[in-house]
Amino acid sequence: MNDLLWLWILLGVVVLVGGGTALLVPRSRRRRGEGSTIAAPTAPEGRVAEPGTAAGPAVDEVAPPATAEPAAPALETPEPVAGRLVRLRDRLARSGSPLGARLLSVLSRDHLTEDDWDELEETLLLADIGAGPAEELLDALRTRVRVLGVRDPQAVRDLLREELLKVVDPSLDREVATTGPVGEDGSRLPAVVLVVGVNGTGKTTTVGKLARVLVAEDRSVVLGAADTFRAAAADQLQTWGARVGVETVRSDRDGADPAAVAFDAVRKGRADGTDVVLVDTAGRLQNKAGLMDELGKITRVITREAPLAEVLLVLDATTGQNGLNQARVFGEVAGVTGIVLTKLDGTARGGIVVAVQRELGVPVKLVGLGEGPDDLAPFDPEQFVDGLLG
C-alpha cells in the first residue's frame, strides 16, 4: 500500500514539472525576442508575400505600359523673305510718320520762309537723322526748290523722296554674307556671323529670327549660344532653333567660357558642312576694355576654325542717341560690318537709319518689323523711304 502511495506521489511531481516547463518556455522566448522582428520582403501594393518567398509581381498582374516619349513638335515653315519689308512700309504709312508727313506739309507751302526751313530742320533732328545728314538734306532741298519752283504736291513728294533716298544711300552693300570661303582642303567653310549688342535690344530674339530668314532661303544653320552669362539665354535660343529644325550648340552650365562655346559651334558647323553659323554673344556693356577683351577672345578662337563673315550689331531703333553711343563703342571694339535695327516699326524716328550708318560707316542690313517670328526683313532703302512718306 505504501509502495502504491509513493508511486502516485512520484507521478504527480513529474506532471507538475513538465507542465511548468511547457508554460514557462514560451514566455521566456517572448521576452528574448521583444522589440525586434525579421522583415519579410516587401510585397507590391495590393499583394501579400507568401511566407518564405521573395515578393514579386502577381501572376495575373498586368504591368502598366511604358510612358511614351512626347511627340516632337511639327517644324514650322518660315515665311518667304521676299516682300517682308512691304509690311514695314505699310506700318510706317499707317502710323503717320512725322518725318514724312511734316516734311511734305512744309515743302508744299506757297512761300517758304526761314521759319519754314527751321521747322524742317527741327523735324529732321527729332527724327534722329543727325545734324550732318539733316544739313545735307536741307541744302539739297533749298537748291532744288529755289531752282525748280516746285509747289505741286506730287512733284514735292517726288523731290523729297529722291533726296531722302540719297541720304539713306541705296548704293551700300546690304547683303548678309551667307557663303563662306573655301578652306585649304578645298571644302567650303561655313559663313560665321557674330551677333553683338547690349542686352535689351532683342539680340537673342534677332538671332533666332535671322535663323528663320536663312532657313527660308534654304540655308543650313547652326546656332552658337555664347551668351553664357544671362540666365535662360541658351534656352531661349535653343527654342528658336528647334522650331525650324536648327541645332544649337550650348554649354551645360551658366557662366561658361563664351569663346569655347563659339568655337564648338563653328567646329560643328564645319564638320557638318553647314552654310551659316550664327553666334549669339553676351550683351554686357560694363566698360570698353572688358568688352574688347571678351569679343577679342571670341574672335581669335573662332577664326582658328573659320574666318568671320559678318559682325552684326543689334540696335533698338527707339533708343535714339543712346543707341548711337552704343554703336560707337561696338564699332570701335568689334569690327562691325552691318547693323540690325529692331523695333523700327514702333518709332516715328526713322532717321536713326541714316544716323547710325553715318556714325559707323556700315549699312543697315536688317530691320525688325514687329513681334512675330518672321518680322525680320532685309532692309530695302526704297521701300523704307516710301513708308516714311506714306
Automatic annotation (TrEMBL):
It is a peripheral membrane protein. Residues 30-78 are annotated as: Disordered. Its main location: membrane. GTP binds at residues 197-204, 280-284, 342-345. The chain crosses the membrane at residues 6-25. It is found in: Cell membrane; Cytoplasm. It catalyses: GTP + H2O = GDP + phosphate + H(+). SMART domains: AAA, SRP54, SRP54_N. Residues 57-78 have a biased composition (Low complexity). Residues 363-376 form the SRP54-type proteins GTP-binding domain. Pfam families: SRP54, SRP54_N. Keywords: Cell membrane, Cytoplasm, GTP-binding, Hydrolase, Membrane, Nucleotide-binding, Receptor, Transmembrane, Transmembrane helix. Its EC number is 3.6.5.4. It comes from the Bacteria. Part of the signal recognition particle protein translocation system, which is composed of SRP and FtsY. Involved in targeting and insertion of nascent membrane proteins into the cytoplasmic membrane. Acts as a receptor for the complex formed by the signal recognition particle (SRP) and the ribosome-nascent chain (RNC). Belongs to the GTP-binding SRP family. FtsY subfamily. This is Signal recognition particle receptor FtsY. It comes from Isoptericola peretonis.
